[in-house]
């Protein structure tokens, strides 16, 4: 499963780079305009995000599986962030993104372009967040918990150890979550 996730992330990154290059190509080392002709100069945001020194604060997948990268974020959302995850209409009341920084959480509403702080003491600090099989997860080191993206409620059996559910570790895992080949059944929701 981890190899699949890594492959999907790599494909998404490659797709993002191709999309950025097609939308705002940078000039080649020799230039891309004839001598004496003016041409559009590359957007400074494109140059910055394509440089070796650029980094991002958080990333998530949107409803189409496209990778979204966040840097300095949305108005009113503090940075640096610890995690972000897109929340879909029907799972959240509105379409938006959940942002996590320490014990603080915000929901950015796409339609109204506003933020709403969430008070979710049961969720705590998320070092990573994930939406998988229409469920939302907060990772805290090697522990994780599932949370309701509207109320912040956490079912009573959490936190659980990510090494038993999300990755293949020797001597770890629950037999009921593995198929007959000994491989983890990745379709079983946690």
Outline the secondary-structure elements.
Elements: H1 2-23, H2 44-49, E1 58-61, E2 67-70, E3 83-87, E4 96-101, E5 104-109, E6 114-118, E7 128-132, E8 135-140, E9 143-147, E10 160-161
Antiparallel strand pairs: 1-2, 3-4, 4-5, 5-6, 7-8, 8-9, 9-10
What does this structure look like?
Hemopexin repeats lie at residues 78-122, 123-169. The chain is of the alpha+beta class. The chain has helices spanning 2-23, 44-49, and strands at 58-61, 67-70, 83-87, 96-101, 104-109, 114-118, 128-132, 135-140, 143-147, 160-161. Strands 3-4-5-6 form a four-stranded antiparallel β-sheet, with no helix packed on it. It has a four-stranded antiparallel β-sheet with strand order 7-8-9-10, with no helix packed on it. A two-stranded antiparallel ribbon has the order 1-2. The model is unreliable at 1-37 and 175-187 (pLDDT under 50).
């Amino acid at each position: 499963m981890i190899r699949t996730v890594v492959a999907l992330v790599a494909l998404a990154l490659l797709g993002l780079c191709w999309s950025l290059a097609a939308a705002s190509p940078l000039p080649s080392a020799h230039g891309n305009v004839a001598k004496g002709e003016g041409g559009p100069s590359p957007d400074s945001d494109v140059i910055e995000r394509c440089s070796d020194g650029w980094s991002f604060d958080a990333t998530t997948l949107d409803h189409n599986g496209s990778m979204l990268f966040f840097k300095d974020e949305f108005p009113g959302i503090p940075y640096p962030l610890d995690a972000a995850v897109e929340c879909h209409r029907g799972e959240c009341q509105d379409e938006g993104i959940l942002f996590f920084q320490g014990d603080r959480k915000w929901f950015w509403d796409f339609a109204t372009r506003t933020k709403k702080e969430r008070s979710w003491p049961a969720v705590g600090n998320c070092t990573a967040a994930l939406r998988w099989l229409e469920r939302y997860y907060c990772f805290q080191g090697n522990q994780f918990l599932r949370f309701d993206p509207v109320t912040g409620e956490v079912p009573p059996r959490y936190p659980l150890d990510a090494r038993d559910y999300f990755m293949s570790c020797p001597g770890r895992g629950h037999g009921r979550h593995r198929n007959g080949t000994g491989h983890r059944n990745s379709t079983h929701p946690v």
